[in-house]
Amino acid sequence: MSPRRCSTLSSSPIWSVDEHLEDILGAVRPLEPIELQLHDAQGCVLVEDVVVEIALPPFDNSSMDGYAVRVADVEGADEEFPAVLTVIGDVAAGSDGLPGDRSVGPGEAARIMTGAPLPAGAEAVIPVEWTDGGTGGGPADTMRAHRDAPEGAGGEVRVHRPVEAGAHVRARGSDVRPGDLALSAGSVIGPPQIGLLAAIGRSTVKVRPRPRVVVISTGSELVQPGEELTGGRIYDSNSFALTAAARDAGAIAYRVGAVTDDADTLRATIEDQLIRADIVVTTGGVSVGAYDVVKEALSSVGDEDEPGSGIDFRKLAMQPGKPQGFGSIGPEHTPLLALPGNPVSSYVSFELFVRPAIRTLMGLQDVNRPTVRAALNTDKALSSPAGRRQFLRGTYDAEAGTVTPVGGSGSHLIAALARADALIVLPEDVTSAEPGTDTEVILLR
After folding, report:
1. Whole-number Å distance between alpha carbons of 435 and 403
2. CA 96, CA 93: separation in Å to the nearest integer?
3. Distance, CA of 169 to CA of 117 (rounded, Å)
4. Going residue by residue through the chain (445 aa), what tens digit of pLDDT does each one get?
5. How many CB atoms lie within 10 A of CB 115?
6. Could you tell me whether strands 234-235 and 222-223 are parallel, antiparallel, or unpaired per DSSP bridges?
7. Looking at the chain, which terminus has fewer C-beta neighbours within 10 angstroms, N or C?
């Protein structure tokens, strides 16, 4: 992996947002497929079609607790003139049917439980609420437990309503049949998909694994939440936010925490983390300050020892998030994205660049957040710097078709970010957006 364009610290070209993203996605490749157990496959992407090999349900079974009957025996039944049937036994879930392979004959019924196989001879199931439950009284609201019917559910049952053939019966293959496509390649494995795979007997599945993302924040001023703040120090929020964002994108994320402003320490930390990283994300230290440690630590990486690798530090025509870095590091050419340190700049950069990279590693086709058009709901015009694509925080009202700015444009306003559910996009050629302007909106939730 190598950048398409090079930059220098003194004079570097300005990259557009689209160029930077294109460069990243052009260098990132989906992870190699592996076979995983079902409980490990959640969140992964299928790489092959899954075809059903058994019918589901595998046999006709009852969808209710009640009585398996023949349709003709309950025709015209009502509460005044119930059909009186002889109960010949119980059919429980997990059984093969009636004891002794008996079948339901004329004038007979079998008590049956939800999920139990429909016994031979029966054509439908009468819910217990449509009967007297074998008590000889009025309509029942439950069935007597088997232990309370030691006679083997014998006796008689009065049925108060008729049914049609197949009523309250889950027919064999009514869900899927052998040869049906259960899941197609490209499907994301979630809880319902795992349930389906298990139901059709699959114990493993071939998927692209969830990418492993290592998040490292930099800055000697950073203190871990819960520790005491002293003069000039702030709490490290970036590593927590971006680790959560990586998990939200579908990755397995590891938060390393804050590294002090020392190039050797940062370089060693990154090298130590490569063993568990499919992608590395750093925040802070990519601007033009005297203590921009990421740039110092990584500017010369890969020149001789690791041909084809290296980090390119860039200026982007965007606000927030102008300083960015991208390239690869280590013997496996692990992608590294270096993001700005201001919380809003860092998060916006993650959404625009890191999230698509993660989802590309997963093998997904649609890697970007969904976008919509909405009318700008504001009391006054919004200003935007010429030549830069601005991303403002906002709240989107789908019913009204509007988006409302939240907070100002400052890249430190993390409280406003927490209230936002969208990014308002003002293009490079827009310097003022009036109330009601039709605007592109990136949905964050």
Report:
1. 10
2. 9
3. 9
4. 444 443 333 356 899 999 999 999 999 999 999 999 999 999 999 999 999 999 999 999 999 999 999 999 999 999 889 999 999 999 999 998 898 889 999 999 999 999 999 999 999 999 999 999 888 777 776 776 655 554 445 689 999 999 999 999 999 999 999 999 999 999 999 999 999 999 999 999 999 999 999 999 988 888 888 888 888 888 899 999 999 999 999 999 999 978 888 888 998 999 999 999 999 999 987 766 555 678 788 866 544 555 556 889 999 999 999 999 999 999 999 999 999 999 999 999 999 999 999 999 999 989 999 999 999 999 999 999 999 999 999 999 999 999 999 986 655 578 888 999 999 999 999 999 999 999 999 999 8
5. 15
6. parallel
7. C
Which tokens belong to 266?
A: 């940062």
pTM of the model: 0.84
Evaluate whether 130 touches 83 at the Cβ level (below 8 Å): no
Q: Is 131 exposed, middle or buried (0-12, 13-18, 19+ CB in 10 A)?
A: buried
